[in-house]
Amino acid sequence: MSSPAPQPSPRPDPEQVVEMLDTLALADRQVAQVLDRISTSRSPVSRSTVAALERLLTTLRPAADVRARLAIVDRRVLAAAIRLRRERRDGLRIVGGELQ
Predict the structure, then answer these.
(1) Would you say residue 44 lies in a domain?
(2) Over the stretch 8-61, which tens digit does the pLDDT of each residue have?
(3) Which of 67, 75, 80, 89 could serve as 14's disulfide partner, Cβ 3.0–4.6 Å?
(4) CA–CA gap between residue 44 and residue 85 (Å, rounded)
(5) Has residue 65 got a pLDDT over 80?
(6) How far apart are CA 100 and CA 95, in angstroms?
(7) In a domain, 98, yes or no
(8) What domain count does the chain have?
(9) What is the reported pTM?
């Protein structure tokens, strides 16, 4: 008999919140890309548009769940996660065309 899926921690640590923020950022980028393609399409109402929107839903559903979870995260944990995410992003440098 299988065990139930583990429930997310009611009090996520900053590392877990960073992962949630990354999920939202990915969803935001995908929404922008899909909407860009639709807005520049000759035929915005087409099967390919519908298929793109259906694929987008697979990203948006988990992102909506993440957003709801983030709404109840302690502000200090959220602030720590934002600092951690910024430090990681600032720590990435492009040197000679390669990520360092």
Answers:
(1) yes
(2) 556 899 999 999 999 999 999 999 999 998 888 888 788 888 888 899 998 899
(3) 80
(4) 36
(5) yes
(6) 6
(7) no
(8) 1
(9) 0.71
Two tokens at 98? 């390669």
Domain containing residue 47:
14-90
Inside any domain, residue 97: no
Q: Confirm whether 1 is domain-assigned.
A: no
DSSP string, the chain: -PPPPPPPPSS--HHHHHHHHHHHHHHHHHHHHHHHHHHH-S-SSSHHHHHHHHHHHHHHHHHHHHHHHHTTS-HHHHHHHHHHHHHHHHH--EETTEE-
User: Residue with structure tokens 């990520």?
Assistant: 99
Q: What is the pLDDT of residues 67-84, one digit of tens each?
A: 999 999 999 999 999 999
Q: How far is CA 34 from the centre of its chain?
A: 15
List, in order, residues 6 or more apart from 53 with CB less than 8 Å away. Answer: 34
Tokens read off for 96: 């000679």
